Amino acid sequence: MYGLNSLFNALQYQAFVDFGYLMLLVYFVAMTAVTVYCLLQFHLLYLYKKYHRENPEIKYRRYDVDDRNIPFVTVQLPMYNEMYVAERIIDCVAAQEYPKDKFEIHVLDDSTDETVNIVAAKVAEMRAQGFNIEHVHRVNRQGYKAGALQEAMPLAKGDYIAIFDADFTPRPDFLRTTMPYFEDEKVGIVQTRWEHINADYSLLTKMQALQLNVHFTVEQAGRSYGNLLLQFNGTAGVWRKKVINEAGGWQSDTLTEDLDLSFRAQIMGYKIQYLEKLESPAELPVEMNGLKGQQFRWNKGGAQNARKLLHLIWKESGNKLNIMQKLHATSQLLAYGVFLWVFLAAVSSIPLAFAFRELGISTHFLSFSVLGLFSMAAISYTANITAALNRTAPFTFWEKVRFFGLFLTFMPISMGLSLYNAVAVIEGLMGKASAFVRTPKYGIDGEQKKFKKASYVARKISWITIAEGVMALIFVIAVILGIRTKNTAFVLFHSMLAVGFGTICYYSIKHLRFR
After folding, report:
1. Residue 512: which residues within 8 A CB-CB, separation 6 or more?
2. Residues 7 and 82 in one domain
3. Residues 388-429 pLDDT 10s
4. Is residue 258 flagged as an active site residue?
5. What is the DSSP secondary structure assignment for residue 394, as one 8-state letter?
6. Pair 486, 353: CB distance under 8 Å
7. Which residue among the candidates 109, 165, 167, 258 is catalytic per the annotation?
8. Which of 140, 174, 409, 419 is most buried, by CB atoms within 10 Å?
9. Domain, as residue range, for 423
10. What is the pTM of this model?
11. 110 belongs to the catalytic site
């Protein structure tokens, strides 16, 4: 009997060791993937800084408003249930410093609520003022935003199509600044930088602004300056109409039709002209469930496009793309998988924290992952402090200190989104179809307006929100056990995950409308 017990204990111990090595492998692979992604991001930072060192002054040519040779443009405004912002975007487009007879406005309205009547009244008002404007209302949402854009193509009289989502407030000089770049026949798309009209509304909007500033400076501009593939961001840009048609049109088989079509156009040989210093202000989501819905759509759509486009980049593009373009395009398409890797690293780190001693492995080898953290800190600092494209005065010492405080807050919160976004990525990679869920906006332009009683606010707790609460509790327990057993290698990491998952769960419930 004693021999059997010894054998059983030995088998148990071996199983424990084998499981420990498996978790070590999962964690190592996940953190290596995150680190490689961060280093490629650092390369974009290098390209960005190099260009700005060589070109300290960037000036854009603008068409004169009295120039009668400027091209005719169709401005499309796709929207679905946007009662709080529909009038605002129409007013902003109508205020363009562009001759009235040189552009038309098509409001592509798929709404099922009061937005339909609001838009109809506004369109009638604009027509009375002499604007060429149409209200194109669909009674179904077939193909969602991509479907609306594609169905409206035959209606567009312009050879160029500008697109704005309903929450944007484009500058009056948008058209006369973007249109000169189409004199280059290779330019198929002109994209402008998103700016934020309510960045200081809350901690949530401040963190979104921090992350989006990275995308619209270091990422987009870095790719542009390095002659790499970048993306049309779905709004605040202009397309050459024939490029849309030649590239296969708007397709609704992914949730990010903008990324899909812009990659197809660039593989054909057209380029995107990115105007880093021409900002297009927009409203950031002010409540957690709306933000999560937006994140889900972006991450799932990105994964869907990875399935759809990677073979085009590596096989069908031939010699049209060089190796660096292919590498960064692949990184861009797979970037959405970072959340999946972070979640796998988080889950595998729990048993791994208590297995290091038995495995006889030093925890110091994990320090390579710090490279990714330093890389992201440098990129965020450049995007939000060094670039400071909308600043006229330099940042003070305390403003820089506040930036690092915000960055250190952003890190655990972004980790807390890893479960939600990991589910989106997995669904996208599996090819699971889902509806296009638009991000509700409430006309909050920086003032402390309330949104809790507004329409469009979520009313139900999702299973993922409950799971996020459970994950927060698990990591709190892991921190306590780690300290008590002196297995402290992951205590900081687990503390960040506990804070992140707990915060996401708390605000997901707080921002619900229960009545």
Report:
1. 289, 457, 458, 459, 460, 461
2. no
3. 666 667 788 888 999 999 999 999 999 999 999 999 999 999
4. yes
5. P
6. no
7. 258
8. 174
9. 2-53+336-435+457-510
10. 0.92
11. yes
